[in-house]
Amino acid sequence: MTKPPPKVTVDRPISAVDYPFADYPQAGGVTEVYPGIYWLSTPLPFRLRAINLWLLKDGDGWAIVDCGYKRDDVREQWSQVWETKLGDRPVKQLIVTHFHPDHMGNSRWMSERWGVRPQMTQAEWLWANLAVNDLNSDNVPQLADFYRRHGLGEERAGILLEGFILYRTGVSVPDCYERLHDNQLIIIDGKEWRVLVGYGHSPEHVCLYCAESGVMISGDQILPEITPNVSVWPWEPDADPLQGFLQTMDRFRPILRRDTLVLPSHRKPFTGVHIRLQELEHHHHERLEKITSAVGSGITAGELLYHLFPANLDGHQVAFAMNEALAHLNYLMHCGRLRRESDSQGIYRWFRP
Q: 164, 176, 334, 340: which has the fewest C-beta neighbours closer than 10 Å?
C-alpha cells in the first residue's frame, strides 16, 4: 500500500521544510506522490544514496523525467516498473534534467526501447557528448593538473586519479535529441509544465513546474538536506557559477507557489521551497564568510578544502570539493573581496585586496 499523495491546493504560507513521505519506494516499486505522478528510486555507485526518477501519466501513455545510472540493477528496476506499472502503455516523452550520469545514464537504452528522442537543453546535450568521449569533465589528467596549480597536494591528487569514476562507464548517449528552452511549455496529461532553466550546478539545468498542480520537478537545482554542487572547471577557470546559482534562486522565488510540492533528484520530496531557497542562500553566504576569514596571509583552493570539507573524501568527492572551493573563490574575486596571484611555481593563491 502506498501512502496517499498530499493535497496541494492553495498558495498558503509555509514556515518550515516538510517531508510528506516517510520512506523511499521499495526496489522495483513506485510511490504515488501526487495524482498521476510516481516516484522511483534507483541506486548509484557514489556516496549519494540514490537518485529519484519520475513517471507521469500522459494520456494513454507516460512521460518520464531522468533515466538513472547505466547499470544492470537499475535497468532491471526499470523493466520491473514497465511490466507492473506502465501496463504496456508507451513512453511518449523522455525528459533529461541535465547531463550528469545519474540523470543521463540510460537515455540511449530508454529512447531505443520506446522510440522517443530525449528532451533536454542544448548545453546539456553537448556536455554529455564531450564527457562520454573522456573530454571536459572526464579529462582526468587535465583536472589533476588544474587542481595541482590550485594547491591540491599529491596525496589527494592521487586519491582523485585512483578513485575518479569516468562518465562513460555510466552513460550511453543517443544519436539525437529534442531541444528544450527556458520558459517553454510542455503538455503532460493535458497540463502545462513550464521549463525553468537553472544555472550553477550544470550548464543549462532543466526544472519543470506545473503551477496548476503546485508541483515542481527540481532535478539537482534545488535539493533538501544537501546542497547542489556548484563547480568551476579548467576550461573556464574564471567562471562565476555561484553567481548564476544565486541568481537562479532569486528568479525562481516569485514563480513558485509557497506550498509547492518539490520532487528533487536526491533525498525525499518536500514542501517549503521558499524556506529551502533561503537555507541554500544562507549556506553559500556563510561559506563565503568562512573562506574570507580563512584566507589569512594567502591560501590555495587545495588548502581551503581542509576548512570546508571532511578529511575522508574519495576521488570523486575531491574533484567536486575543489570545483566548489574555486566557485566560491571566483565569486569573491569577481566581487572584489579577494584577489588571485600566481607564485614562482605557478601555484595560485588568494589574498585580500
A: 176
Long-range contacts of 243-246 (CB under 8 A, 24+ apart): 243/200, 243/331, 243/334, 244/199, 244/200, 245/198, 245/199, 245/200, 245/201, 245/284, 246/200, 246/281, 246/284
Q: How far is CA 133 from the centre of its chain?
A: 21
Within-domain flag for 243? yes
Q: CB neighbours of 203 closer than 8 A, spacing ≥ 6?
A: 98, 99, 121, 123, 124, 126, 127
Domain span holding position 127: 31-351
Encode pLDDT of 174-230 as tens digits: 999 999 999 999 999 999 999 999 999 999 999 999 999 999 999 999 999 999 999
Query: Is 0.85 surpassed by the pTM of this model?
Result: yes
Alpha carbons 334 and 254: distance in angstroms, whole number: 27
CATH number at residue 175: 3.60.15.10
